[in-house]
Design a protein that fits this description.
about 350 residues; alpha+beta; Aminopeptidase; 10 helices; 13 strands; about 30% helix
Length: about 350
Amino acid sequence: MVPKQMSLSIEIIEDPREILKYLQLGISIPVRKDFYEFILHDLTVFRAKSLILKEDNKIVAHSLVYDDGSEVLFFGFFGAIDHQEKHIDFLLKELIKLAQNHQYKILRGPINLPTFIFGWGFMTDDSLKDLCISKPVNPPIYQEIFTQHGFYIKSKQGTWEGEIYKVPEEELKKYDLEGYEIYAPKEWSEIPNLKMPLLILSARNLATESQVTPSPENLFENFFSFAKRYGGIYMVKLLRQKQSKEFVGCFITLPDPIRKNKDGKNNSFVGYSLTIDKEHRGKGLSVYLVKKVFDAAYREGLRYVSVPMEVNVVECRDLAKNIFGLSYTRTHIILERKVE
């Protein structure tokens, strides 16, 4: 008897609310209903589409695709049921073909929208695999197949995490903090007025490898809506010069509504973005800024923090490891391929 030939086909979904039904196929992090409004925002901003792979009319794999108006086609939520090699391979070939047909120059990902919930990159096999916000889990077969199809590492994002360490006040005395002060917003209504200062600080200080999320200026309100829903205003603090009142740094953190402690309570948060203007570095200002946020989080009952960053950002890496005692726990790799 001749074995039955399996029929593989691609369907493209463009309706954001329809796309919601398929995202869980491509991510380990729960696509919870209370996250829908944040997901729909980004799907709409980027006019995202879903590529659905079917085998004999049964859905077996999924990838999200979108762009920011540049020559880069981004993908995210890339996954196959049971991580079947033939399905990963077929869907990837279709993804490459789509990029070619629409004349993109670069194919990059996975970058999962919104990144503050679903994160980015394929996780390496030596990483922790417990469930938490923005840290997707996957087996190594994805990296292996993507590499076979000409993908290379665009960025390697590491995570440092552990119990919150409260730096003693005495420790700050050895740093040059004269002339600086912490600006701590007291109400969420202040955040819109801080949009430009925060975006400018990020744009002029973050290395290219650290700027993972495309078009952050279009995602600002969605980001802080999430922070407001699950966290507190204490999670955002800025650094400014006393005399000029100019902002020269900021530390933005986010709640983690997924990770739970042994009592079933959420007591974790994420250090999302730390920036200090270059001319003000080397004075201990990052320790000062991070301490103020960590101390406030501790008072609110949080006890655990994770900090993702590009692995080559030495200053932040040393701060996480040597000052705050965090351990390196996970690596996520963002891949890229030139489209020919």
